[in-house]
Design brief:
Elements: H1 12-21, H2 29-36, H3 43-52, H4 61-66, H5 73-83, H6 87-92, H7 97-104, H8 114-122, H9 132-138, E1 150-151, E2 154-155, E3 165-172, E4 185-192, E5 199-205, H10 214-220, E6 258-259, E7 265-266, H11 276-282, E8 287-291, H12 308-321, E9 327-328, E10 335-337, E11 342-351, H13 353-362, E12 369-375, H14 382-385, E13 386-387, E14 390-391, H15 402-409, H16 416-437, H17 446-449, E15 463-469, H18 478-487, E16 494-499, H19 514-526, H20 533-536, E17 540-543, E18 551-554, E19 563-567, E20 572-573, E21 580-585, H21 589-597, H22 599-607, E22 614-618, E23 626-630, E24 633-640, E25 646-660, E26 665-671, E27 680-684, E28 687-701, E29 720-725, E30 729-733, E31 738-744, E32 758-763, E33 768-771, E34 773-775, E35 778-779
Parallel strand pairs: 5-8, 5-11, 6-10, 11-12, 12-15, 15-16, 16-17
Antiparallel strand pairs: 1-2, 3-4, 3-7, 3-9, 4-8, 9-10, 13-14, 17-18, 19-20, 19-33, 21-32, 22-31, 23-30, 23-34, 24-29, 24-32, 24-33, 25-28, 25-31, 26-27, 34-35
């Protein structure tokens, strides 16, 4: 199915006006068809194409036109399916074009009003992941005249990407993180069409942009094969001692020596990998801006992951783009330059760290920022590297932490003289960061509180687009769920896309018109055109986890009520149970070493019950479909044989079935983002057979059962009560499947791995699982 949510309905007069503007004003079908054969420049070449394609299952298009037969809906959609590239699907439907369009989810109208039918066809998605009119543009249908042309509320790719202006400036920030008495300068790279029009701006704040210090990063990774240690219950977990030292003197702003009309530094290629969504908009008349920020190559300052100073520096870039801050043509002359090409309307884009800083800048309420499109973004850094009093790694990156990530993006090391000048200060700065993050304690404190953007959500004034993978165990789903929940009562317009992938972009997915939707969204937010984007784009779009190419519109995410499962002897039941179950968190050294290197194999063996270091509980086999909507709450009475302990939990879908892969598959098709510009691969989520699928996960330190801020006492063999949420999800359980709960301690991918001989006992009489289950026949 092709899921198009970015289409708008316009009246017949507007349709006619737009068709005239793009050169499809004829009422004659042959004229329209031949004009759409952009790659065929002569009448004879067009005839060859017409002879090679069918009007019916028995007649080619050339003969159909030559014999001047009446145009029927069947003929129109048979030809239309071939124009859109769905020849294989058409053949599978016996060359029934109407059935093919219906199967694909594309719009079908009568052909009595040919102009209307053609307008709808131009707005239909092709097999190559673009609107038909966009595909025609990529084939050179339009002259690249560097002027904006809107069609169905969206900008067409009419800007010449072979003549882009690429220039660099240095924005003066309001922070001095290297304590040299002057405000830090950050390099800003600008890519924009060569036009006199004022351009809307897409700004991506990417600490990765100026390159990576991979060797330093690898050397900095922490050892996770360390024991869990007991916490001092008298220690203040709310201490403010973690604050960075304040600068001795107030930094000085630079004296402006004059103004320049043009930048002094140009470049031919972006330093880092450009964001594909940004490339899509370059050919549609948007300027694209990248900044790596403080502590990166060609900029001043110290790199401090997620800090208020880092956020402030990116906010300062927005201020310059909006005309409210100074930038210079280089780092020494103090010659200022203004963004006279900007229309002062800015959107921030990007995934992961990039989307994180976009979210963070939005919480400053900065003027000029109109919207944020954040994908797989962090809203609370504590929840990225810690969880309920535990040091927890993002999935796939054991041993990473705030200082490790800072080392990775401290690209100043790439310039030898700059590295020589800053090396000692950087080493001291990193030592402080390691001390402040406190990998032994794992508690939430002042350091983490300053990097929790949820504290400032009330300051967000812009409308928000959020995208997240429900199988993203790097930036886990709680990051977007908590932001979504915090925004719920604010007046901002907010939209969320929940897909079944890992830590990925979704702008090149075959079955969802994400780029097209964002085109409509930015027409309203950055071009100030009333195209009803707020109303047309769904509030919640969820990708079905059971069916390929299926996306659904939801009203909300997060059920308010939960049904209860009681934990019994290897079962989840609706009746309370009694008794005890035990497991031991220890493995023989050879097995332990193997799983440390192959934690994916450890997870499979845990889910399939091949290890004794856990307990597995399964529900009855479902006879009807039901959906988990939100956070599952685990209530557990447990004791440890020592005065330390941790508990991890997984919820699993057990059932021999097909499951969507978490990584989409390349479809062997390349999308053109302009005219021979920035090709990207078209992908789609495909299915594979399996006996299970992990749905969600969670972890807690037994000494943080009250709060991540508070250390509770713990005695050997003392029962304690835990209540903690697992990562939120929206997941459909199918008939014939079972819901499974796995309780264990060490998570070889995410927690520290002490391999300590600790025995855990679960009191079944006081243990349960609260599931936000919606069923076709009511709640659980």
């Amino acid at each position: 199915m092709i899921n198009q949510y970015g289409r708008i309905a316009v009246d017949s007069a507007t349709e006619l006006q737009e068709l005239r503007a793009v050169g499809f004003n004829s009422e004659d079908f042959e004229t329209l068809l031949r004009r759409a054969l952009t790659n065929y420049k002569t009448y004879e070449a067009q005839n060859d194409w017409l002879r090679e394609h069918l009007a019916t299952d028995e007649q080619n298009i050339f003969l159909f036109l030559e014999t001047k037969q009446p145009l029927t809906q069947a003929v129109f959609y048979c030809i239309a399916a071939q124009l859109l590239g769905f020849t294989e699907a058409l053949a599978g439907n016996g060359y029934n074009g109407v059935a093919t369009f219906r199967q694909l989810g594309l719009p079908i109208v009568t052909v009595n009003n040919l102009r209307h039918a053609w307008y709808e066809l131009l707005n239909s998605h092709t097999n190559n992941g673009l609107l038909f009119i966009d595909e025609l543009a990529s084939q050179g249908y339009f002259e690249s005249n560097n002027h904006r042309l809107l069609f169905n509320g969206k900008s067409l790719p009419t800007y010449n990407t072979n003549d882009l202006i690429r220039e660099s400036v240095w924005v003066e920030t309001s922070v001095d993180t290297d304590n040299d008495g002057r405000f830090d300068l950050v390099q800003v790279d600008i890519i924009r069409p060569n036009t006199n029009e004022k351009l809307p701006v897409l700004f991506t704040a990417s600490p990765y942009y100026q390159g990576l210090n991979e060797r330093g990063n690898d050397a900095k990774v922490h050892d996770v094969n360390v024991p869990l240690t007991r916490k001092d219950t008298h220690q203040s977990a709310l201490s403010n001692l973690n604050q960075m030292e304040e600068t001795v003197a107030k930094p000085l702003a630079r004296q402006i020596n004059g103004y320049a009309e043009e930048a002094s530094v140009i470049f031919t290629q972006e330093s880092g990998e450009p964001v594909d969504l940004n490339q899509y908009f370059l050919s549609r008349g948007y300027a694209v801006v990248y900044a790596a920020g403080i502590g990166t190559r060609h900029s001043d300052g110290m790199q401090d992951t997620g800090s208020p100073e880092q956020v402030e520096s990116m906010k300062n870039v927005v201020e310059w783009l909006a005309g409210n801050r100074v930038a210079f043509t280089d780092r020494t002359s103090n010659i200022a330059i203004v963004a006279n090409w900007s229309n002062h309307n800015i959107a921030m884009t990007g995934r992961s760290y990039l989307g994180t800083l976009a979210t963070a800048v939005a919480t400053t309420g900065v003027s000029g920022l109109k919207t944020v499109i954040s994908e797989a973004a962090i809203s609370n850094w504590y929840q990225y590297y810690r969880d309920n009093g535990l040091v927890v790694a993002p999935g796939g990156f054991p041993g990473e932490d705030m200082d490790v990530l800072a080392e990775l993006v401290y690209s100043r090391i790439k310039d030898p003289a700059d590295w020589l000048k800053t090396k000692n200060q950087w080493d001291d700065f990193q030592a402080n960061t390691e001390k402040f993050t406190d990998r032994v304690n794992g508690n939430y404190d002042y350091y983490w509180d300053t990097r929790n953007y949820l504290n400032q959500v009330k300051n967000i004034k812009v409308d928000m687009i959020m995208v997240h993978g429900l199988n993203d165990w790097n930036v886990k789903p709680r990051q977007v769920y908590q932001l979504w929940s915090a925004l719920r009562d604010l007046p901002n317009v907010k939209k969320i896309y929940l897909h079944q992938g890992q830590h990925i972009y979704i702008n090149n997915n075959r079955s969802l018109d994400f780029s097209d939707q964002m085109n409509l969204w930015l027409t309203e937010k950055l071009l100030d055109k009333d195209v009803k984007a707020n109303e047309i784009l769904p509030t919640v779009i969820w990708q079905d986890n059971t069916t390929e190419d299926a996306w659904h519109v939801l009203d909300e995410w997060g059920a308010s009520k939960k049904g209860k499962y009681y934990i019994g002897n290897n079962v989840l039941t609706t009746n309370q149970n009694s008794g005890e179950l035990n497991f031991k968190d220890w493995l023989p050294e050879n097995q332990f070493a193997y799983y440390c290197e192959h934690f994916d194999k450890w997870r499979d063996d845990t889910i399939t019950g091949k290890l004794s270091t856990n307990q597995i509980f399964k529900s009855e086999t479902y006879t009807s479909e039901r959906t988990v909507d939100g956070e599952i709450l685990l209530n557990l009475r447990v004791k440890s044989s020592q005065n330390i302990g941790l508990i991890s939990a997984m919820v699993v879908d057990y059932g021999n079935d097909t499951y969507l892969k978490e990584t989409p598959t390349n479809q062997g098709v390349v999308i053109d983002r302009g005219v021979n510009f920035s090709p990207t691969d078209l992908v789609s989520f495909e299915s594979e057979k399996s006996a299970y699928k992990m749905i969600t996960i969670g972890h807690i330190n037994l000494q943080n059962r009250t709060s991540p801020r508070q250390n509770d006492d713990l005695w050997p063999n003392q029962y304690v009560d835990l209540h903690f949420e697992l990562q939120p999800t929206y997941y459909k359980m199918r008939p014939g499947h079972q819901l499974g709960l796995i309780i264990y301690a060490t998570d070889f991918e995410m927690t520290i791995r002490g391999n300590q001989s600790i025995a855990y006992t679960i009191d079944l009489s006081k243990s349960s699982l609260d599931v936000p289950f919606t069923c076709k026949k009511g709640r659980l």
